[in-house]
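Researcher: We're teaching a course module on how sequence relates to structure. For the next exercise, students receive a sequence and then see the predicted structure as tokens, so they can try to spot secondary structure elements on their own. Here is the exercise chain.
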Amino acid sequence: MTELSQLDALASDLVKANVDIIVTDFREGVASAKRATKTIPIVMLVASDAVREGWVASFARPGGNLTGTSGFPIEMEVKRLQILIQTLERPKRLGYFVFAPFRRRPAVVDQIKRLEEAAGAKGAQLQLRAIEVEEAYGSLGAAFERAANAGVQGLVIHNHATIGANSHAEVGDLAMKFRLPSIMSYREYAVGGVLLSYSEDTIDTYRKGATYVAKIMAGAKPGDLPVEFPTRFEFVINLKTAAALGLHVPASVLSLANEVIR
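Model: And here is the predicted structure for the students to work with:
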């Protein structure tokens, strides 16, 4: 995986190559592309709030050279927490893994507050565990161990590009090793062994991205193309993991799943 610290240089290389369009599918990629160029069209395919990040003036009229799909990360993270609570049936102590450099970002501060409120409304306490960006796998493993030792019954793991430094199976292995039912963003993590995943439908998002590229290549200005939001979502349950953890997944949760891995 490309180190995040290299993204600015890579974006600059694309600008020097005078590419027609830059397409990027994660927050740090958008930020680097925005810093690198104010003229080359950028199509984003991200779950971040593009207005709150300051990337676009508004969703209806983004302005500038950026458009694409945006998301509502706070609401999505709360939804993941609610799914985990429904799956575990009245847990008392839950964990939230957030990458350390993000903890003081206003959006993440608000997100943590909303998660604490959502957990409290269901009678659960939410504990934070900070994951360092450097050597993310080792830091993630240590966080799993601390959470398990603290009696945490389930985890929500914040989505961040650094998690890609670990394979999906490695994250699933940690969840199994420490016997912690977990929910993450994308389907690949559930396939890799994490109990649950919930996210926007990535294939549908990429299709939307291709539509933006086609319109821009046909002469449309990015700043005139409204930013879109996900309309299709994926909820995946890994019943192999549930069985290995000795966990019964309620029928009410199973009925909501788009995919069940048996």
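Model: If you want an answer key for the exercise: Residues 249 and 255 are 10 Å apart (CA to CA). The domain at 4-71+201-231 is CATH 3.40.50.2300 (Rossmann fold).
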